[in-house]
Design a protein that fits this description.
Blueprint lengths: L1 H4 L9 H9 L11 E7 L4 E6 L4 E5 H6 L29 E4 L4 E5 L11 E5 H6 L5 H4 L25 E3 H5 L5 H12 L1 E5 L5 H11 L11 E2 L19 E4 L11 E8 L9 E5 H11 L1 H9 L1 E8 L2 E8 L1 E3 L5 E4 L14 H20 L2 E3 L6 E5 L3 E5 L7 E7 L1 H10 L4
Parallel strand pairs: 7-8
Antiparallel strand pairs: 1-2, 2-3, 4-5, 5-6, 8-18, 9-20, 10-19, 11-18, 11-20, 12-17, 12-19, 13-14, 15-16
Helix pairs in contact: 9-10, 9-11, 10-11
Length: 420
């Protein structure tokens, strides 16, 4: 369903190419790499595979059986596994051999397993090399087929940020590379300024849907900070004219939105009033890791209670401020003092530690803050799981329209554009 509804990529990389490399054991590049030898490892129920360049890897027979990509084992349309993994013997048996001029190997299984009548699996030399999980250099790095954002590939920033900027016409041009270029900038920096945007909710939504689905939250789908009817109103400090310190949105959701879109349709006249504030949360985390390791560990290990209570709504989470991935790199931050509950879930000593470490955190946030006053026609897209946003107080009228997009939809679009 997702692949049919999201707009297809206009870039050189397509889902068809990606899915083939991920799900097919007969890689298009198989002709450029060859196997030299196979050796059974009986005590591990595995095969040792050697390539002509001397590279060696080991594969469990159960893993090979589980990852057969023939049409009987992996559905040719959905690319979903058909074989029942639980039915695969712990010690599957059957002879293996090289063939196709050593460009692939095959296994003739002694018996089929539930879910498929397949007894013959083929694996290309290139596909096996690409999935050589026994090699530390492969196992210890980011699997390229996982294709998630990871810290080493991102551009961290502080006050020196030169806002990545494009135009609405460019990102909406389906024939050019403007949209892909803009998404690359957004991925790198976590924030993107789009000039010349129409002051229209419909046009804002049209842009959002180039990335993915508009995320429905307690605020609805599309929203405005200056509602004209009761259906558009909501109980949140964002709808006031008060200052807002740097924060991320919806920290009380199990999965906060991936992106937030702000389209400025009315701006306060007084200089400086209503200016937007942005901080690279990943930069803050890395500064803490290097210069304040105790504070870093506190916010990695300590869950904080975030909540939102309104008419017919009671949302709560208990998550740490800094979320790490399996490799120890920061993959998300959730920070919002406005929505933080009293710290009654913490011990006496932990509460004292919280306020000590919060001072250090706030200093790092303040020192990395970028201030920008949006003009009518400016639309800013923010990675809500990376970049803190806020605003200065203002008098008079100021209005933004916008929406959220889910993290999964955003990452999907990046993959479809070959940016992950």
């Amino acid at each position: 369903m997702l692949g049919r509804l999201l707009r297809p990529s206009r870039g050189p990389w397509t889902a068809r190419t990606s899915l083939r490399s991920l799900h097919s054991n007969t890689s298009p590049s198989a002709s450029v790499i060859r196997l030299q030898a196979l050796k059974p490892i009986d005590d591990a129920d595995a095969l040792q595979v050697t390539w002509t360049d001397g590279f060696t890897a080991k594969f469990h027979r159960a893993w090979l059986r589980d990852n057969c990509s023939c049409p009987a084992c992996k559905h040719p349309t959905t690319l979903q596994r058909q074989v029942l993994t639980a039915a695969i013997p712990v010690h599957p048996t059957g002879p293996a051999q090289l063939h196709d001029d050593n460009q692939s190997m095959s296994v003739q299984w002694d018996a089929p397993v539930e879910g498929t009548d397949c007894v013959h699996s083929i694996y290309s030399a290139a596909w096996l090399r690409d999935h050589a999980y026994s090699d530390p250099s492969v196992h210890g790095s980011y699997n390229k087929h996982y294709r998630q954002q990871h810290l080493p590939a991102l551009s961290l920033w502080g006050k020196e940020l030169d806002f990545p900027t494009t135009t609405f016409a460019s990102v909406m041009d389906e024939q050019g590379s403007g949209f892909r270029d803009a998404m690359h900038q957004l991925k790198q920096f976590g924030v993107l300024l789009i000039r010349g945007t129409p002051s229209s909710m419909d046009e804002t939504e049209r842009f959002a849907r180039r990335i993915g689905f508009v995320l429905e939250t307690i605020y609805g789908g599309m929203w405005t900070t200056r509602p004209t009817n009761p259906d558009q109103s909501y109980n949140d400090t964002a709808s006031t004219n008060l200052a807002l310190g740097p924060h991320t949105d919806c920290t009380y959701l199990y999965e906060p939105p991936g992106l937030q879109i702000f389209n400025c349709v009315l701006q306060a006249n007084t200089d400086g009033e209503g200016s937007s504030r942005f901080v690279d949360g990943f930069h803050v985390v890395e500064w803490l890791r290097a210069h304040a390791p105790e504070t870093y560990l506190f916010f990695v290990e300590t869950p904080l209670h975030q909540y939102c209570i309104d008419d017919d709504v009671s949302l709560h989470t208990m998550k740490p401020l800094i979320q790490l991935d399996a490799r120890g790199n920061v993959e998300a931050v959730r920070f919002n003092d406005y929505d933080r509950a009293p710290l009654t879930h913490l011990s006496f000593d932990q509460v004292g530690a919280f306020y000590k470490h919060h001072k250090v955190l706030w200093q790092a946030i303040h020192e990395g803050e970028v201030v920008y006053k949006m003009s009518v026609g400016d639309m800013i897209v923010v990675d809500n799981q990376r970049v803190f946003h806020g605003r200065h107080a203002f008098q008079g009228e100021r209005a933004l329209i916008g929406c959220y997009i889910g993290r999964s939809e955003y990452d999907s679009r990046l993959r479809m554009l070959d940016l992950l």
